[in-house]
Each structure stands twice: as structure tokens, then as C-alpha cells.
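Re: export button greyed out
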Amino acid sequence: MCNNPLLKDPYQQLDDYIDSIPYKKENLILILHRAQEIFGYLPDKVQWHIAQKLDLPSAKIYGVVSFYSFFTMKPRGKHVANVCMGTACFVRGSEKLQKEVESQLGIKTGQTTEDQLFSLDSVRCIGACGLAPVMTVDGKVHGRLETTADIKQALAKYRPEGTPEEAKGSNSNI
Amino acid sequence: MDIQLKINDIPLTVPAGMSILDAARTINIDIPTLCYLNLHEMRLNNHIASCRVCVVEVEGRRNLAPACSTPVFDGMVVKTDTQRAVLGRRTMVELLLSDHPKSCLTCPKNLDCDLQALAADLGVRNITYEGEESEFAIDKSSLAIIRDPNKCIRCRRCETMCNDVQTVGVYSAVGRGFETVVKTAFDLPLHDTSCTFCGQCVAVCPTGALMELDQVDKVWKALNDPTRYVVVETAPAVRVALGEGFGLEPGTIVTGKMVAALRRLGFDRVFDTEFGADVTIMEEATELIHRIEHGGRLPILTSCCPAWVKFFEHQFPDLLDIPSTCKSPHQMLGVLSKSYYAETYGIDPQKITVVSIMPCIAKKYEAARPELGQDPVTPDVDIVITTRELSRMLREAGIHFDHLKEEDFDHPLGESTGAAVVFGTTGGVIEAALRTAYEWLTGKPLENVEFEPLRGMDGIKEAVIPIGKRDFRIAVTHGLGNARTILEKIQSGESHYDAIEIMACPGGCIGGGGQPYHHGNLEILEARANAIYQEDRSKPLRKSHENPAVLKLYRDYIGEPYGEKAHRLLHTSFTKRPKI
Amino acid sequence: MKLKDTGELNELKGQSLALLKNRRISSPLTTLEALGKPRHIMVCGGTGCHASDSPEIAALLKEELNQRGLSDQVEVLQTGCFGFCEKGPILEIHPDNIMYVQVSTTDVADIVEEHFIQGKQVERLLYVDPSSEQRLASDFPFYHSQLRIALRNCSYIAPEDIREYIAADGYQALAKVLFNMSPASVIEEIKKSGLRGRGGGGFPTGVKWELTGQGEATQRYIICNADEGDPGAFMDRSILEGDPHSVLEAMLIAGSAIGATHGFIYIRAEYPLAIHRLEISINQAREYGLLGEKILGSDFSFDVDIKYGAGAFVCGEETALIHSIEGARGEPSVKPPFPAQEGLWGKPTCVNNVETFANIPPIILRGSDWFAGIGTEKSKGTKVFALAGKVNNVGLVEVPMGTTLRQIIFDIGGGIKNHKSFKAAQTGGPSGGCIPTKYLDTPIDYESLISIGSMMGSGGLIVMDDSDCMVNIAKFFLEFTVDESCGRCTACRVGTKRLHEILTKITEGKGTLDDLDSLEQLSKIIKDTSLCGLGQSAPNPILSTIEYFKDEYLAHIVDKSCPAGVCKSLVKYKITDKCKGCTLCTKHCPANCISGSVKEPHVIDEERCLKCGVCMEKCRFGAIVHH
Ligand SMILES: Cc1cc2nc3c(=O)[nH]c(=O)nc-3n(C[C@H](O)[C@H](O)[C@H](O)COP(=O)(O)O)c2cc1C
Ligand code: SF4
Ligand code: SF4
Ligand code: SF4
Ligand code: SF4
Ligand code: SF4
Ligand code: SF4
Ligand code: SF4
Ligand code: SF4
Ligand code: FES
Ligand code: FES
Ligand code: FES
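Workaround output, generated via the alternate export path:
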């Protein structure tokens, strides 16, 4: 038997998790969090699987998943960038930051780059308002992103080595 | 405990816990509602307070209160007719309409729509706040129900009905904010879900968002095709509800007028599904006795409700061997029209079109099930239209329904007994079966044919009926949620019954999804049930096995009930289906 | 090691006091004398500083100290937020009473060398007070008008060690409640203190406890609302990161007072650090027998579970929160029934905010009179604000109720950034309003904020200057509510969408005076008809900006201009006679709409201009302006 959790069938992993918690239907949201961790997103098939396992109508699961913005039904890129659109960041220019990140990545908020490297989303205040405007990439906070170069630099860290370094561009304010 | 309050300066005393809405109704003040629906007998209580068209002013409260879901308290002072309240209500309707097609003239719900009526009552003359309108694809996937989410007002009645009463769980509110709408899982076409097509969601939808698939044109086409021999059959529940479409009192029995009207429409033969019902009893009672005598699996479950059949196929695939294999009565009548009748009268069955007039939406779907036909090109029933569609068709044809002279069904497939009539209401199928099984098993005549414990609106009815040496444990349920309760008990071995009647619609077929809308008034269902029993009592014959036309059918054509030919024509099989 | 009774708790406290013995005396609860070594470096581990590498700094410090053989004399600890996030990462050295600000990983070696080996302050890391231009080692003006009750332990103790909390009088209030007070007297004490809910509504906490405790019930629940959805607020997470045990202790107290044996903390999944610290605290509390069966040898049993939100602002609303815990869509439901009557799984449930809870132990220990002596007539105690926006000192501040906005923004906040002028302060987040200059001196409490068209909300306080367009701000908040509306009721689902559409029209210069009327009228109707607090308060940002900044609306509508120069469609770019004809702008204009020959003044074709502003940024002569 293979005991490496990384190699275990993801559905089996999910079932093991569900079996391990005391209440099941009541913990639907927790289970969805775990499922998203395992699969990276929540496609119909996974939702249906959970529905069967918990003996809940699929429509209910779908209703819940579609309600919470944390859950995604589309696969995400390798890195997830979130521009903070909280009030503090907004008044310190996060709208421009968002536009600039969109243009640097060539996608709109809510989309994923063609090479599956980045997904772009927005969040509402991550508690680092002192560093506004901020963006997180994979949970890591990048603050005071005030120029195009700042942003290029921040994103460059997540681009694989050898890709054309774009950060040398101008240092204009965005 | 009673409390005192004032509504529009009128003092009144009502029990504590009552809503403002109900309190106002006691003094004949009506407050409009849209989302609220309390069908107590069906255990449907949709009080999500989402539409906000019932808002009223309550003294001392910062904002307006939804009358449907705000309980009264002692000393409460309510004003339902202030400018503030009326403006609030009208604005809600305007906001709803701002995200709604303004196409009433071509909407199937035209003149029967709660939203439309409300807009008229509240004097909506323009839509002050216009803006983006949602756009959804119309779901025409199924052969029974058309979903047009563009007309959905998010009242969630369908969701409550399907989840709480029917426990099928096809719908959920999906998305958030302006995008929220009631959808199926993963936005699947209804056809690909576990929907049973019971049509109860259609019955409670206040707008045209959920409608039956309209097949009136197909009927017109058949009637106008000189090469077709068009036979029509009508279910028992239709004759006690059709009159409502023409302004008659609920519960008016219009059997004779209905037959006359159908003849005027040009049907070649007007048959009665009740004949099929009598045949069903011959088969089902025989099947029951056969199972008892051969140690077959009990309980036997009735199978004349296609929504119920689809329900157990999806939800209880491991119990597929306990329902009776009998086809439903209209399918039996259909197949007999195209076999026995066709052969007897020398008509080419390929030329016969069978049209069923049903209280039921699921029967549209049922008629198209591939196994329900003698072969792929000869379905038992070709077209199913509902009671509502028939009344529309009669209006289209300009028939003054109320002034028609009563006429009789055609022979031989128009003859029936009282046992067949009671099929139309909950408990009826089992009652009819008992009338026959009793006499067959005991060989003695049954004096009192009315089984009171099996009647009425209780969700689950049980009775132990001694027949000969054996006590028969009978259960009757209606509404799929109740059916689920009983099946789970059977699965767990908690309950032991011999026979169970199950109907998907609360009240049975009189409350079918294709009947004239009850608009929340369940007294209408009661009136229809009473009419059914009245019709039963007026029949000279009240036991299926006494129907001479049926006896002749077996003698001349089928042979033994539950025999080889019967199996081929009158029985069917079931399919495991996934639960979505 | 389970604590079997109060004696053992006190014994542990006695032992643990050594941990705190040489800390700055900042806790209002403990009096300690500085006793010498070992010295402590408290590195801020709040989200702001965390984001600017404070964990790396702490790790490097440890390594450096180790290499220099100082690790047994100097200990490095991670705390919660110091409040002064603007200058993060911050660290404080005890008992030296010295704070270093804006520390970076490259400063670590200097700190060890200069501070600990040479024994002198690292001057360049000291805070420069902008008014006196002096370098200060501690006691910044930022802290002067503050009173830290809810934040009493934040930055003072290391939150990941329960012994530090116990040393700082932790769980003493619980012991008092369990052994020296009856449930009724606890409720009475909270009622008398005048504590009101800090989650926004301001409902008297004692009364809520009383209502939840009433009547017969087989089970009751305590819920801590840590959803904190206000975009631009981080008070609750800071408390959970900096002093998680204070919340657990308060939940225990509430549980014993109303007869609940189970509690839930509903927290946003986006708060990983707070979740992490809570998990540690819950495990430690269980280990010490402060959660679980028969706590401290009493008859009282209580346990706490964490429940995660999944990104829905409306789940901060208590009925929605309850539905979310139950595993459903987080839609609010009508009240009554209130959660106190029928809450989680139909049982009486008391929902309180994080900050509300954080106030409970001090009230129990120091008495309701002490607490009621702070604040204004109807609003007692202090309030934590997340001060942010165009203010010099962005951070977390706690002030007595009744402090004026001016004190918060100018004395504590250090005034407006970049020497611009104050335009408005936004409180209450998407439910609140914008407060203009004329109300800067209003003493802040629940009632006064409502009377000037805003509300306390959970404590977000965003400062705006003259470069902010108030119509655009209103639109920003409406965009938020449209996004976050649960979609259940007509008023909010369709209504807020329509409000946003009208605002968009106005910011695009397509608005009419009728639109302004519609905006006001519809706003009032939505407030009047919405099902839950979200819809009922969503129009507040519109109504307050119309009231105080009507001229800006009129400028957009009548003059088709945006005075702050924010609304793109209304901005016009123009080249002035400062132009040297360098042609730089022409090269960068994406619309190719700038013309002119070399060394001649250039012109912009307004028709084709995309208003991207690139030309203005590029021009080195400041020749391009917008209006
Ligand atoms: C839309 C909406 C969002 C809310 N968000 C929060 C929140 O994030 N945190 C919170 O403590 N209370 C929030 N509340 C208030 C809660 O409903 C509730 O009143 C509060 O948690 C009660 O605790 P308190 O009495 O201690 O303030 C929100 C209310 C509404 C209407
Ligand atoms: S649903 Fe009602 S209001 Fe809407 S178009 Fe149809 S009839 Fe008109
Ligand atoms: S009455 Fe006038 S508006 Fe109405 S259908 Fe006739 S022509 Fe048209
Ligand atoms: S037809 Fe019946 S089963 Fe299908 S969605 Fe409607 S209520 Fe549910
Ligand atoms: S489909 Fe009909 S019943 Fe269902 S929510 Fe929409 S309007 Fe209501
Ligand atoms: S109960 Fe009757 S009307 Fe309802 S689905 Fe079954 S057969 Fe059709
Ligand atoms: S006001 Fe908004 S958030 Fe609240 S119930 Fe209505 S739609 Fe949902
Ligand atoms: S604002 Fe942009 S589009 Fe307009 S002139 Fe300048 S560079 Fe060109
Ligand atoms: S960049 Fe400035 S100075 Fe140069 S041409 Fe453009 S406006 Fe003139
Ligand atoms: S608003 Fe962006 S971090 Fe707070
Ligand atoms: S009927 Fe009361 S809110 Fe819809
Ligand atoms: S996070 Fe470090 S001071 Fe606020």
C-alpha cells in the first residue's frame, strides 16, 4: 500500500478527510475548503462526488459553492495574484494598480493567463493597509506598489528563470 | 394567548404569533404578497421574505416591515396604506420589472400571473429605475417543463417545493447579488437532473418562469390532418377541475360538457382514461395476489404516477423490484386504442394518434419513455396536454364551454366504474384495488366500498384491512417527501406493509402540476376531491372487475390478467438512474 | 498539564511572571517591576509587519544573536500589532524601552552590534517625530491619546505562549466568574458596565447575554464573529493575532453566564495568521484544562471550534453567519426570531464581535464602574479604529469613546499625508458615511455618528484628501455592496445594482438632475425595504456624500467635470505653454492624438484622447495638465 499522501488518489484523500470529521453535512463548507486544497478548484465532478458522499442534492452544493467568492470552479494558474481593493488601498490608488497588473499580465481580474502561470483576483483588505496599495501573490504581501517597475519586480519573482526580464522598464508612477 | 393591536386604526384581537398579513386578513385588509406561500397541508411554508412587496409601516420601527413574516405583538400599531408603504411596495414591483421581460402579451402565463396582477393592482405605470437586465438561456431540454429564468423573481417557491415537500432537491439559488437565480445543479438542463417532472414547482411559480411544455399546436396539427385517426382520453382529475378555467366553482363536475367539447374540437373518438384505470386494477390486484401466493416481494407499490416512478428510479435504485410493473392507466388506454380497438374496428394503428388530457406534467415525459410503446414508432400515447392546455385550446376554438350539452364517452374504451374515478385523488388507487382484491380473495361481495382511513389530506395514511384470513397493512402517501419517509422505513426494515399507494403530487392528481392554478388556496383541492367521491357515488358500478367492457376485453383479447399478453401490452420495466 | 483549580492557575501565574518581569509596563492590568535580564526583543508579528518581512527579521536576529553568543541573554519574541503599522516593521527592546521602526533585514547585524554589544541606540532606526523633527526612542505622540483596553496585550505579550497571557492576569476573570460570581451577577456586571457591541450595531452586550440565557433550552451556543468584512478594517484580526486568549477567556465567561457549553469562532479564511494563532491558543487552552470538561475544577464545561468563512461579506451579519456555519448559503433571514431566541441549529445563540469579547475580562477584573467611567454617556469604554487612507500614521488605534475625529486623525494620525488637506473621513465601511470637515470636532460615539449620517461600524476609519472624488467613493462602496449582496431580497439585489448604475452614469458625465433625485429617492426606499443590515445601510455612502458634497455631484452633472480629477471620462488633458516641443509625449500616446513639430508647442486632439494620462506622466516639463 502506498502511504504517501501526495500520491494518494485525490478523491480518496477527500473521502478519508470526510470520514475523519465528526459531523459531515454540517461541515460542508469545511469540506469544500479541503476539496479546493486538494484539487485546486471545485469542478462539477468534485461537487457531485461530495454530494453523493454527504447524501446532499448536488444543487445544494452548487448553490453553496457559487455563493462564496473563495470557492472557484475554474482551474487557477500556478500563482494567484490578488490586488487589494479595500477602501484604504482604493484611496491610495489600487484601481490603477489593478489596471497595471491586468496590463502586465495581459488578463482581466478573474482570469488566468494562457500559460497558466498567473490568476488574477481581487480581495478586500488583507490588513496591511499601512502598505497600501498592496497585492498578494500566493499569500505573500507586496506593499507600496506605486510604480510600474514596483509591480514588474513583484511579479518577476514568480516568473520562471530565463523569461525575459521586463522589470527594467521605466519607473513612472502609475 | 391573544394580543391586541391596531391595523389602519382598526383595533383587533388575534392570537400571539400570527403574522401581520394574517391579522390584517381577519379584518378584510389585503396586503399583496409574491414570495410568501403557506400551504399548510402540504407542509410548504415559503416565508423567506425576499420580494418585499408586502411591506407595511409599524409604529416605532425604523424601517418598513414585511407583513408576511413579521409576527404581531401586543400594542402594535400597523399602517398598511400610507404613502410610504405603498411607494415601497410599488418600487419593489418596479425593481422586479426592471429586470424582467415586458412581454406579457406573448407569455404563457399571461392573465394568470401573480406578478402581472400585482403590477396592475399597484398601478405601476412606468419603470422608474431601468438598467441592466439579466439574460439567461431558456431551458427547453425536457419534454415536460420549460424554464425561463428571465422571468424568475427569485421568490424561491420552487426551491422550497422541490426541496422541502418533494425532497428531490433539483433547484437551488445559485450565485450571489444581482446574478442570483434559481438553477439546477451545475446549470444542467432539467432533462439531465433527477427532476421527476411532477410539476409542483410549476404549480407554485407565481410567474411564467416555470411552465409546462405547450403541446396544443401538436394536437391541432393532428386534428387537422385528414390521414390521422385522433383518439382522446381524459384522466379522472380533469373533469373536476376543467370548469375552473371557465369560471365555474372549484369542484364542479363537467364530465359531460368536457366530452361534448372534445367532440366539437374534432376528435374521432373520446375515450376515458378511467377505462384504463379499471384495467390497471385488474392487473395490479392480480399482481398483488400473485406476489402473495408465490412469496413475491412485498409491499407492492403502485406505479401509475410517472413522477413517482422517476423518483424511485433516481433515489431508490435498489428498490426497483418492489413497484408494480403495471403501466399507468393512460398508457394502458393508449396501447389498447392502438391494439385492441384498432384490431376490433380495423383501423391501422400507425394512423391512430392518441392524445391524453391529463392533470399531470410528468405524463408528457412518460409518454415519451421509449419502453412505453409496442415498438419505437408506435408509442402508446402520442401527445399529452394538461387541463390548463385544454381550457386554452377550448378558448382558442371559441367553444362556449358552459353552454354545452352533456354527452357520453365513446364505446368501448369509454366505460368505467366508480373505482376508476377515485384514482384521481390520494388513496383512490389503493381503495379501488381493495374493492377488487377483497372480492377476489374472499369470494364475497364487499358491502361498504368506501375506505375512510385512506381518504383525506394527511401526508401518510395507514390502515389494517382484514381480508379473509389475512390482515392487509396498507399505506397511502402523497407528496414525494412523504414517499421518501416511507421508503426509508422500508429500507431500514422498520415498516412492513403489503401495499402502498404513492402519488407524487400532494392531494394526488387533483393537485397535479397541470391543473388550473390554485394560487395558494388549498380549499380548491378539497372541493376537487369531494367532487371525485361524488362522481364515484353516482356510478352504478363501483368495482373495476364489474366493468363489462373490461371483462369483454379480457375475454376477447387479453386473456388472463397478468398473463402473457397482458405482460406484453400492459406492463413495463424500470431503469436505474443516477442521483444528481 | 491540566490546571485543577484556581490555586494551580495562580501558581502558574506566579511562575510565568518571570517571563514578563522586564517588559515595558504597558498593560493596564499588571504592575511589574523591571528586573533586569534576560532582555527581550519583541518583533511585531501583526499582518502589516509580517508582510514587510518581520518573520525573517526575527529569524535573522536569533541567528545573529546566536553567532555572537548572546542567545541566552537576549530573547526574540513575535507579538501582535503595535498599532503603528505605518512605520512597520517595528521592534521593541525590553527593558531598555526602545522601539526601532521601519527595520529591514539588512539592519539586523547593526542592531545586534550597536545595541547589544556596544550598548548604544541605533539612531537611524529611531522614529522621527515630524513636528519636532526629533528622534524618539519611545513614547511617540501616536500613543499619547490612546487607551488600550481591548488591545491591552497586543504587542505586550507573545501570543503563542499561554503562560504570557496567564502572567498578564489571563484567565483570572474566568476564575472569578466561576468561583466568586453567579451567572446573574456576571450579566448584571456587564450590563452595568455599559459595554455595547463593537461589531457595528452597538447592542448592549449584557442585555444580549440575558436574552440568550432566558427560557428553556437543551443547548445554547456562543459565537465569536470574526468575519470582519469591512474593506479597510483589521481590528479584529489584530486582536486575534496579538491576544487570542482574551477572546477565548471572554467566550468562556459568556458561556458560563448564559449556560452554553459550546462556542464557535467564525473567521475569514483569508486570515491565515489569525487562524494559526487561534489554533495554537485553543490547543494550549485545552492542554491546560481551560477548555474542556470541568474547567478549573468547577462544574462548567466548554469547548470552542473554529469555523471558516469563504469570502462573503454578508456572512458578518449574524443570521447569515449562522446559516454559513450550518453549511448553507450565507443568506440572512428575517428577525425575529433573533439568534438569542432561535439561532444555530435552532438553539439560543449569542453572537458577539471579537473586540466586544476582548473587553470582557478587564470589565470582570476591574469592575463595571471602572469601565463605565470611560467614554460618553451612552457609549462606554474605548473603541479600536483601523486608521487608514491619506493619513500619515496608518495603524491601529484605541481611544476612549468621545474622542473627536480631529484628535484621531491629527494628533494620533499625524495629519494628512503629503501636506494635502483633509476632505472627509469614512467610518462604518460600506454601511457608513463620509464625514466632512465641519464635523471633525464631533465626539465620536454610536449616536453622534448616526446623527451625522454615518455609523460606528466595526471601526474602519479611512481618511480622504482633496484628491479624492466623493462621487467616485460612493460608487466604490456601491460596487462593493452590489458584489456582496446575497441576492435574496429585491430591494438590495436589484436596488443596489440600479444605484450603482446611476452613479456610474454620473461619473461618466451622462447624469442628469433627475438622476440625482432618483438616487436619493431609491436610496431611501432601499433603506426602508431591505431584509438585512447590508441593504438597509448600503445607500448610506450615497446619502451622506449627497448631503455633504452635493456640489461635487452637481459639478459632475451640470458642469460635466470632476473637481478631484478622478473620474476619467470627465477629465480633459491639455498642453500648456510650458511645452518645449520635446515630442516625448507623442511617442507614448497610445491614441496617437498628440501633434506638433519639434520644438513647437504640442496639442492634444480631445476627441481621440483616451484619457490614459500617460502623456502627463511622461512630460518632464510639467506642460500637461488635466482639469
Ligand atoms: C452586512 C453586515 C455585516 C456585518 N459584519 C460584521 C463583522 O464583520 N463583524 C462583526 O462582528 N459584526 C458584523 N456585523 C454585525 C453582526 O450582525 C452582529 O450584530 C454582531 O456580530 C454582534 O456582535 P456585537 O453585539 O458584539 O457587536 C455585520 C452586520 C451586517 C448587517
Ligand atoms: S411572467 Fe408574468 S409579468 Fe412576466 S411576462 Fe409573463 S405574464 Fe408578464
Ligand atoms: S387599443 Fe390601441 S394600443 Fe391597444 S392594441 Fe389597439 S391600437 Fe394598440
Ligand atoms: S417538477 Fe417536481 S421534481 Fe422537478 S423540479 Fe419541479 S418540483 Fe422538483
Ligand atoms: S422559478 Fe418561479 S417559483 Fe422559482 S424562484 Fe423563480 S419565480 Fe419563484
Ligand atoms: S400525482 Fe398524478 S398529477 Fe401528480 S405527477 Fe403523479 S400522476 Fe401526475
Ligand atoms: S439586504 Fe441584501 S444582503 Fe441582505 S438579505 Fe437582502 S439581498 Fe441579501
Ligand atoms: S491622455 Fe493618453 S490618450 Fe490622451 S493624449 Fe495623453 S497619452 Fe494620449
Ligand atoms: S512631453 Fe511635454 S514638453 Fe514634451 S512635447 Fe509633450 S507636452 Fe511638450
Ligand atoms: S485596504 Fe488594502 S490592505 Fe487594507
Ligand atoms: S410576500 Fe412578504 S416579503 Fe415577499
Ligand atoms: S502590524 Fe506591526 S505595527 Fe501593526
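Residues 26-36 of chain C have pLDDT under 50 and may be disordered. The button fix ships in the next patch.
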